[in-house]
Amino acid sequence: MINGRIVGKRNNGDVIIRPDKESREDLETIIQRRKMLVTLQPFDADKATRLQQKKAHALIHDINNFSNNDPMFLAENDLKFKFCDAIGWPTTPMFSLANCSKELASQFINFLVEYCFKHEIPFDRRELHLSMNVHRMMFLSAVHNRCFATQARRQDAVLHIHHVNAVGRGKRYVVDHRNRYYMILTAEMHNEIHAMGYWRFCEKWHCGAIKLTDQQIIDFKLMSKAQMKERDADPDYEIKDWQLPTIDEIRSWRENNE
């Protein structure tokens, strides 16, 4: 699907159409193939975008490549049936990415990403932040032990826990790691975030930090359950809520550092 805007009309009746940024490459391909007859229809702002269509097909391609035709993993139509069953969407007729709504396309992309996480399938995360909630991506990355920036799996790279709220140079076993913000990063990305700083790094990689649950803190061996109970049993002990900077603080930081 090529989207564009009618920007003029000549005296001889020719209509001038300017394609949008997402459609320029597709239009060039059509012209190179000398396919000069096209069908026009009014623009529907609610219809799935070209970017959503490309992202969904890219994820399906990643799943197919990983499966190597293994029947355990699903082809496009099977994935659609599984998705429809999960959300209670009718399968007759089966929806098409060519004409479904933005909302349905977004839900399908979310389903495909979570499917990749569940089955430890590598996938291309580029531009995924434009189609999926970033916080959900970070949560899934934490649950499945993937790098927040590159989605590298734990079996493919050494992963580090990065503390966004610095714990200082003291002994970490005396620090309460609850209510702190973390990121899981490869060694390379861990070095990069220290070199670039948190905000520049997150802008580059379209990611962010999250708070870990108590169980995740235990799983990552940041604290033991006994340490948590010991602190909670102390009537004079209070967990500090370490918050990330506010929007105003971020703007102030940018003004002083750019």
Q: TL;DR?
A:
With 258 residues, this protein is mainly α. The protein has helices at 24-32, 50-67, 76-87, 102-118, 134-143, 187-196, 198-205, 214-219, 225-232, 247-257; strands at 4-9, 15-19, 159-163, 181-186, 210-211. The chain starts with a strand and ends with a helix.
How would you portray this structure in words?
By secondary structure, the chain is mainly alpha-helical. Helix content is 42%, strand content 9%. The chain has helices at 24-32, 50-67, 76-87, 102-118, 134-143, 187-196, 198-205, 214-219, 225-232, 247-257, and strands spanning 4-9, 15-19, 159-163, 181-186, 210-211. A hairpin with a 5-residue loop joins β1 and β2 (15-19). α2 packs parallel to α4 and α6 (187-196) packs across α7 (198-205). It is elongated and about 85 Å long. The relative contact order is 0.08. Mean pLDDT is 79; it is low at 167-173.
Give the biggest sheet. Answer: 3 strands, antiparallel
Strand content: 5-15%
Q: What is the mean pLDDT?
A: 79
C-alpha Rg (nearest Å): 24 Å
Q: Can you write the helix and strand succession as a string?
A: EEHHHHHEEHHEHHH
How far apart are the termini? 39 Å
Helix content: 40-55%
SS class: mainly alpha
Strand order of the largest sheet: 3-4-5
Number of separate helices: 10
Annotation, overall tally of beta strands: 5
Give the overall shape.
Answer: elongated
pLDDT < 50 stretches: 167-173
